[in-house]
Amino acid sequence: MIHIIAEGTLPQKNKNTFLELAKPLVEASQKESGNIFYHLHQCNDETEKIAFIECWADQTAINNHNISTHFKTICPQLNKLLSEDLKITVYQTLI
After folding, report:
1. How much is the pLDDT for 2?
2. Do the Cβ atoms of 52 and 38 come closer than 8 Å?
3. What is the pLDDT of residues 52-89, one digit of tens each?
4. Residue 75 CB: number of other CB atoms within 10 A?
5. Which fold has domain 2-92?
6. How far is Cα 1 from Cα 20, in angstroms, rounded to an integer?
7. Which regions of 13-78 does DSSP assign to beta strands (E)?
8. pLDDT-derived band of residue 12, with 50, 70 and 90 as boundaries?
C-alpha cells in the first residue's frame, strides 16, 4: 500500500469555500478503484493546518487518480485558496 499526506495552510477566511470544493473531490476519490481511504483532516492544535491523508493499493491507482477529471478540475481551485502549495509526502508500507 502507498500512503500520501498532502499538507497545507488554509486561511480561516477561505475555509468554507475550500470545504465546499473539497467534498466532491473526497467523495469521488473514495469511489476510485484502488483507493483504500481518502480523507481531509484539520490539525487540532493549529486549525489552519490541513492535510489530505490517502491510502492507495498501488502506483497504478495513484496514477489513475492523478489524471481523473475530479482531481484535475478541483485541485487547482483548492490550491488557490491555500497560503502556499501543498507539501506532498509519499510513504510505502513496510510492515
Report:
1. 98
2. yes
3. 999 999 999 999 999 999 999 999 999 999 999 999 99
4. 18
5. Alpha-Beta Plaits (3.30.70)
6. 29
7. 35-42, 49-56
8. very high
Q: What angle do CA 47, 74, 64 make, to 5 degrees?
A: 110
Contact 52, 40 (CB under 8 A): yes
Asked if 83 contacts 10 with a C-beta cutoff of 8 angstroms, the reply is yes
Give the pLDDT confidence score for residue 75 in this predicted structure: 96
Spatial separation of the C-alpha atoms in residues 84 and 2, rounded to whole Å = 24
* pTM confidence score: 0.93
The phi, psi pair for 73, rounded to 5°, reads -95, -35
Q: Which amino acid is at 28?
A: A
Q: What is the SS3 assignment for 5?
A: strand
